[in-house]
């Protein structure tokens, strides 16, 4: 299984935020799209950072409400780990587990192609297991569900 299999199902739409946006605008973007992280990008294609709800929580705990008027770049992670479309799903699961993050941008030729979240990965694995279970049941009983 490859990352491209997930993107094919979930689509390639990616939500980005400009580096100059402030944290209050970021909150609006996360709430509007019902997502937990957003890619920081000036042009919607080049990944300049990633900022997740955890970054907001940490910054609020450390510096209080003043954070809300800071630019997203003040709290974003700039050393972003990305994967290519042909990355094996199992390697991306390992990456997320090892580095303890729940989002990975998919980048090809320096351009953003999608974002895969831990929720996408879990959904994909559950669908896969259900498919296997049905196939095995059919094989054993000789009946189609
Ligand atoms: P998350 O679990 O994705 O909400 O993110 C946890 C922390 O890891 C936050 O500080 C994020 O900015 C950072 N982070 C999330 N995704 C990535 C990534 N692909 N590469 C590097 N850091 C990330």
From TrEMBL:
Pfam family, one: CBS
InterPro entries: CBS_dom (IPR000644), CBS_dom_sf (IPR046342), CBSX3_CBS_dom (IPR044725), Diverse_CBS-Domain (IPR051257)
Signal peptide interval: none
The organism's place on the tree of life at top rank: Bacteria
Keyword Protein transport: no
Entry-linked PROSITE patterns: CBS
Domain CBS span(s) in chain numbering: 6-67, 76-133
Keyword Cytoplasm applies: no
Coiled coil: none
Gene3D superfamilies: CBS-domain (3.10.580.10)
Keywords: CBS domain
PANTHER family linked to this entry: CBS DOMAIN-CONTAINING PROTEIN (PTHR43080:SF2), CBS DOMAIN-CONTAINING PROTEIN CBSX3, MITOCHONDRIAL (PTHR43080)
Name the record gives this protein: CBS domain protein
